[in-house]
Amino acid sequence: MDDKTLNSVPTLNLAFIGDGVYDLLVREYLVTHSSAHVGELNQMKVDLVNCKSQAAFMKQIMEQLSEEELDVYKRGRNTKVNSASKHSTLSDYHTATGMEALFGWLYLKGRQERINELFTLIIEQGSLWKRELSPNGD
Questions:
Q1: Which residues have a Cβ under 8 Å from the Cβ of 92 and sit 6 or more positions away?
Q2: Looking at residue 126, what is its pLDDT?
Q3: Active-site annotation, residues
Q4: What is the mean pLDDT of each run of 10 residues along the chain (138 residues)?
Q5: How many other CB atoms are found less than 10 A from the CB of residue 40?
Q6: How many CB atoms lie within 10 A of CB 129?
Q7: How far from the centroid of its chain's Cα atoms is residue 127's Cα?
């Protein structure tokens, strides 16, 4: 998608597609790194794809973002929303929305390699991932 068209996509629409991109990355990672059955995989996915987790992951990769990526994240974070999930703070919701907008923007730009780089950073720095994949959840 060219930059002019991409710049006209509403930020919440970027977050909408970014949510799907991130969700698929998590699912793929879990399926390829865990021998758990589908019910357990789904619970792991739910624990990793939520506002609180995404906000924590975003804070871990923030310093690795380019200026342009940081601008997209901030646009997403600062987008007016009417409500947040009942299981998260408004701050976490905004941060997660910014992360989703970033992933959506990168996806629409065709920057899969960069998406994979950021996702790898999230996995490598996230103790939650290690806990989710350990046999006892420890």
A1: 51, 52, 54, 55, 84
A2: 66
A3: 19
A4: 86 96 95 90 90 92 95 93 73 94 97 96 73 54
A5: 14
A6: 21
A7: 16
Q: What is the pLDDT of residue 138?
A: 44
How far apart (Å, rounded) are the C-alpha atoms in residues 30 and 38? 10
Cα(76)–Cα(104) distance, integer angstroms = 10
Q: Residue 1 has what pLDDT?
A: 82
pTM above 0.85, yes or no: yes
Residue 120: the pLDDT is 93
Chain position carrying tokens 């997403």: 76
CB 54 within 8 A of CB 94: no
**Cβ atoms of residues 105 and 112 within 8 Å:** no
Q: Dihedral of the CA atoms 27, 31, 37, 39 (nearest 10)?
A: 0
